[in-house]
Amino acid sequence: MEDDAPVIYGLEFQARALTSQTGETDAIRFLVGTQSLKFDNQIHIIEFDDENNIINKNVLLHQSGEIWHIAACPADKSVLTTCYNKTSDSRVVSCASVWRMPCDWETGNNESPEDSVHNPQTLELLCHLENSSHSNIACVLWEPMGDGKRLISLADNHALLWDLQESSTQAIISSSVTLEGKGQLKFTSGKWSPHHNCSQFATANDTSIRGWDLRTMSQIYCIESAHGQLVRDLDFNPNRQYYLASCGDDCKVKFWDVRNVQEPVKTLEEHSHWVWSVRYNHSHDQLVLTASSDSRLILSNMVSISSEPFGHLVDEEELSEGEENHQEDKGKEPLKDSVVSTYEEHEDSVYAAEWSSADPWLFASLSYDGRLVINRVPRALKYHILL
Fold first, then answer.
1. Is beta strand 243-248 parallel, antiparallel or unpaired with respect to 124-128?
2. Which residues form the domain of 162?
3. Residues 134-144: pLDDT tens digits?
4. Which helix (H) or strand (E) segment is 329 a member of?
5. Digit-coded pLDDT (tens) for 197-233
6. If 0-12 CB within 10 Å is exposed, 13-18 middle and 19+ buried, where does residue 180 land?
7. CA angle at 129 for the pair 125 and 134, rounded to the nearest 5°
8. What are 267's strand-pairing partners?
9. 321 falls in which pLDDT band (50, 70, 90)?
10. pLDDT band at residue 183 using 50, 70 and 90 as cut-offs
11. Is 376 strand, coil or helix?
12. Domain assignment present for 319
């Protein structure tokens, strides 16, 4: 099989929740949560065997309801959170819980991986992120660096900071902030920044994006009409502390410098329907993935606003001072941004895209029909970036 060919895996269920197994940096693993109303829901652990170009899967039971969001603990690869629907008093509420995979899930009690599908083990519940007053949890964010004991949940118009205690079997709210204003305010998504000692996070509600300081639980910036319609997702540039990407129902992907929120630094208009997911590559921040209801996944090379606008690393101070100060870059134009590749392997809305935590050149995408596709950055571009 040629190196850049996609590898496709079909779940038997519809699905929209995907994460890479963040704490696992050796094996290439992704976790997918299913959305079934009739059957027990499942977490599929998808391991990609790079050498043989095949997928190995394990299945764990998630008996609590259809999964809308999944997040892996960066510090402990066996721990994850899910946001899921459950019916109580004949109304549907969105809940969140912290789970541990059974300690022997890799070896399993089973002779072969196929057995895990027919006779799956069950996730171990560590604790619920429960707070009676905030019923609908949209997503849970793990602290990007740290010991895996701090989480943020976004529930209705509240952001709650949790401390996990007693070996993560207890969750205590340490602080919270409430979105004030007219109408029914509701957070749709958020992201915890890896910069500033992990003291900041960003949220999306309706068409706005807000930045928050965790130490004071106060707003530090607000991009009022960031998109023409609902903002669906956010991501921070891993190498440039003030840069944030957003996407939404106006089919656009925008890149912001949060020090000046009047205008986006750059806008991409490559999708023809809602954009559900935007993800910076963890190592090479010019590589950006976007996933959309147009059934397409797009890999863009946003080199002009990356940490390597001239093809080599330029530090934040130099970038802020403007290009006139680069002696060696004088007369050199920043490299041009481009769409690297448009991936058409999906036939349904692509709700999620994630980079691998173990291999910076590999990524997965998930469409609602339960199709997971694993792709690689084209070799020519990989070597162009490396050499």
1. unpaired
2. 7-106+120-307+334-386
3. 668 999 999 99
4. none
5. 999 999 999 999 999 999 999 999 999 999 999 999 9
6. exposed
7. 145
8. 254
9. low
10. confident
11. strand
12. no
Q: Which two tokens stand for residue 376?
A: 């690689």
pLDDT tens digits, one per residue of 240-291:
999 999 999 999 999 999 999 999 999 999 999 999 999 999 999 999 999 9
- Helix (H) or strand (E) segment spanning residue 112: none
58 in a structural domain: yes
Whole-angstrom distance, CA of residue 243 vs CA of residue 52:
37
Task: Please check whether residue 361 lies inside any domain of the structure.
Answer: yes
CA–CA distance, 163 with 112 (Å, rounded to integer):
38
| Percent of residues in the chain assigned helix, strand, coil, to nearest 5 | 5, 45, 45
Query: Cβ(127)–Cβ(168) under 8 Å?
Result: yes
321 inside domain: no
Provide the CATH number for the domain around residue 136: 2.130.10.10
CB within 8 A of 377, min separation 6: which ones? 287, 299, 340, 361, 362, 363
Based on the structure, what is the number of domains in the chain?
1
> Residue 230's pLDDT is what?
96
In the predicted model, is pLDDT for residue 323 greater than 50? no
Q: Are 250 and 269 in contact (CB under 8 A)?
A: no
Reduced to 3 states (helix: H, G, I; strand: E, B; else coil), residue 107 is coil
Q: Is 103 helix (H, G, I), strand (E, B) or coil?
A: coil
**208-213 and 200-205 strand pairing:** antiparallel
Summarize pLDDT for 71-101 with one digit per residue, the tens: 999 999 999 999 999 877 778 888 999 999 9
User: 41 Cβ partners below 8 Å, 6+ apart?
Assistant: 13, 33, 34, 35, 61, 62, 63, 64, 65, 66, 67, 84
| Cβ 260 vs Cβ 279: under 8 Å | no
DSSP string, 7-72: EEEE-SS-EEEEEE-TT-SSSEEEEEEE--SSS-EEEEEEEEETTTTEEEEEEEEETT--EEEEEE
